Structure formats: structure tokens, C-alpha cells
Amino acid sequence: MEDEIWLPVPEWPEYEVSNLGRVRSLDRYVTQRKFDTTYTRLMRGRMLAQSLMSSGRYLFVTLGNQKKVERPSVHRLVTLTFHGPAPSKHHEAAHNDGDSFNNRESNLRWATPMENTQDKFLHGTIRRGEAHHSTRIPDSVVVQLIARRKETGLPYYKLAKEFGMCTMHAWRICNAIRRGSVLAGDLVGT
To answer: What would the pLDDT profile of 117-144 be if each residue is shown by its tens digit?
Structure first.
């Protein structure tokens, strides 16, 4: 079993992050006001709850002090803490295994957006074809459209009318500009 190592979060001295992807707050004194009275009290440290981002793909925590509140992603905090600052403002915290809930230090690294996208193809986590949220045409129709174009050589506007789509969309599908992931190699680009 891996030993848990805790390090302070850069720019957030009230918090620590572990190499296992957990985040905790430290004991600290906070100044509060109640009516006309100002007082200082001890706030005990605790393990922070991790919530799911609205995308449903990453976990985040809420960090706060008396000046600001932020909700950074856990994988970015772990990468920042254990691997140092990002090499450029364009780098992203990337998961080596494609599991966005595995926020262990050993599973994270800085990567460019292109490297991160290539990883998604390798892991099979990129949403393509029918799995993509904006897809309106089923994979079976895409294959039929391309096969029909190959068999008959019909112009794109006639294919588009036959399959109930705009001409440009039919052209893009047939030329593998759209939905190329669905196609078998011998159907592409004719």
C-alpha cells in the first residue's frame, strides 16, 4: 500500500493535498464579526468533500480564506503541488490512465492540449460518433449515406434530400470531415 504524503497547496497555506488525491484543511484561527464584536476562534482542520463538476467528468473542492473562495479541480491541485507550476499557461493537468477520478500524483502530469487529446484517443475516452452529445445522425445512417454515394455517385444535394440533411453536411460526412470515426477504411473519402 502506498504511503500518503501531504504537501501544502501553493497559494493556499491553509490547505494540504496528498499524493493519493485527497485535500484537507489545517487548523487555523479565523477572525469573525458578530454584531459589534470582533473575535478570533479556532477552526479545526478536516478532510474536504470532493464534488462532481457540472460536466460530470472531474472532481473539485472548495477552498476559502477571509479574502477569496475558489473551486479548483482536484487533479489540477495535485499536479500543481507535486509537479510544480505548469510549464506554460496552455498546459493542462492530464490523467495518464484516462480515469478522471484517479487523482493520484503518479497518474498525473502536465500536458499540452494536443497531448491531452491524443491521450483521450489512446484511452478511448474521447466522445465520438453517437457518443458525442451533439450527434443527431446515427452511425448506421452515416454508413448508409457513404455506401449510397459510393454505389450511385449521386450528387450531394440529392443524397442530402434523401437522408434528410443539408447538402454541406452530406458532403462533410462523405469526405470524412465529419463522423470519420464511424467509417470503415474502404468507405472513407469517395
So the answer is: 898 888 877 766 666 666 777 888 888 8
Cβ–Cβ < 8 Å for 45, 25: yes
Asked if residue 144 and residue 106 are part of one domain, the reply reads: no
Q: Which of 48, 120, 39 is nearest to 77 (CA)?
A: 48
Domain with residue 42: its CATH number is: 3.90.75.20
Domain limits for position 31: 6-123
Euclidean distance between CA atoms 59 and 74, whole angstroms: 6
What digits encode the pLDDT tens for the residues 22-60? 999 999 888 888 888 998 989 899 999 999 998 888 999
The last residue of a domain, from among 73, 103, 123: 123
pTM equals: 0.69
Question: Which residue bears the cell 475558489?
Answer: 70
